[in-house]
Amino acid sequence: MTKKKDKKQKSKFKKLIGKLHLWFGLLIGSIVFFISITGALYVFKDEIEGVQRKEYIYHNEPDYQNKEKLTIKTLERLVEQQVPEKYPIHWANIPIDHALSYQFYYYERNEHAWNYFDEYPVYKLAYVNPYNGKVLQVYDEKNGFFNIVKMLHWSFLLNSDWGKWVTGIPVLIFVFMLISGIILWWPKNKAARKQRFWFKWKNIKSWKRKNYDMHNIIGFYTSFFALIFSITGLFYAFFFIQAIIYVVFSGGNTQYPDFSYIKTTAPEELRTETTLDKIAQKVEELYPDAYMFALDLGHEHIDDHEHPNFEVYVRHLSYSYHKNSNLIFDKNSGELLHTRNPENKDFGEKMISANYDIHVGSIFGLPTKIIAFIVSLLCASLPVTGFMIWYGRKKKVKSSTYN
């Protein structure tokens, strides 16, 4: 009797899971399809832009090894003369490899705008020869293909503060669907198991059966990676996901390291035209094998964000952001006040740093990007095959009713 009760309870549970899986799928299927396709389109952004922009990424200055670079402040003024904008330059990316161009960014965010295009009054990138200050090329990143794809994926081109909820909630439901899909997939017996792991279509002609197998088998093999990509995407939509990831991977720490107490103490009179160059020189001395570092140029911006200290972000790898160092300098004297390298960070911090790379598949370079691309396309197929299963059953019920 107990076994029969257990079977009935399991059957009722699976029926409930099946109904929720179906109705949630019909509710968010088109959104999941859209998010998956835009995610797939974005995966190879760096590789494609690297080819398109190759002649500007390298400045091609003759005999540059024997020449002096202009100061950062001088370069800033020359860029503003050649690329006049209403707003000041926000930051510069400075490569360690002296053969590469400097990158100057105009970037402003209006947090009160309701859509993406008004939210960012300017987002431009200028590639600059650091030896003569010539602007080699300017890209309007705001209206660029990949950035629009990214913001469609992120927030449907709505304000990013609340638009991320519009995509985040469906992805949260999709996580439930992936888990419920595994429960529904789980075979009852050995005979069913054979059909669940791979396609057995030798004697199968029905498109419905083939579609059903595609949904189940692709769903099963995709589910592990899809869960990873979904959860790392939810990281940007919900703070509680960030908190959970940090607490779990840091071994129970509930307080993320905070260094906002480290502030500039030197008088403003000590700041000179070459303070930023002093900082840049120190970074290059400490990390000669790094890829590049970012320097905020210290202007006020319309989003009114606070900088409690002058932090320099060092990116060690060209293909990924997860390996990075964070340095704090006195912005007036240029003295190094604090260093936090990858080896100083707990595993929770490392996971937070790696979240973007895991999400877009760049964590281990091209191989993981290919995985991300394929998984995104397969995720896009699940709402389609799922809808066809439902539509096929609905059509069968209608035809049997009329007969």
Low-confidence stretches: none
Shape: elongated
* Strand order of the biggest β-sheet: 4-3-2-1-5-6-7-8
- Count of DSSP strands: 8
- The topology string of helices and strands comes to HHHHEEHEEHHHHHHEEEEHH
Strand content: 5-15%
Structural class computed from helices and strand pairing: alpha+beta
Span between termini: 40 Å
Helix percentage: 40-55%
Largest beta-sheet characterization = 8 strands, antiparallel
**How confident is the prediction overall: mean pLDDT?**
90
Rg over CA atoms = 26 Å
Q: Helix segment count?
A: 13
Structure description:
Keywords: Membrane, Transmembrane, Transmembrane helix. The chain crosses the membrane at residues 20-44, 165-186, 218-249, 370-391. InterPro entries: PepSY-ass_TM. This is PepSY domain-containing protein. By secondary structure, this protein is of the alpha+beta class. It has a domain at 2-43 and 156-251 and 365-402. The protein contains 13 helices and eight strands. The chain has an eight-stranded antiparallel sheet. Helix 1 (2-42) packs across helix 7 (160-185), helix 1 (2-42) packs across helix 13 and helix 9 packs across helix 12 (347-360). The radius of gyration is 26 Å and the shape is elongated.
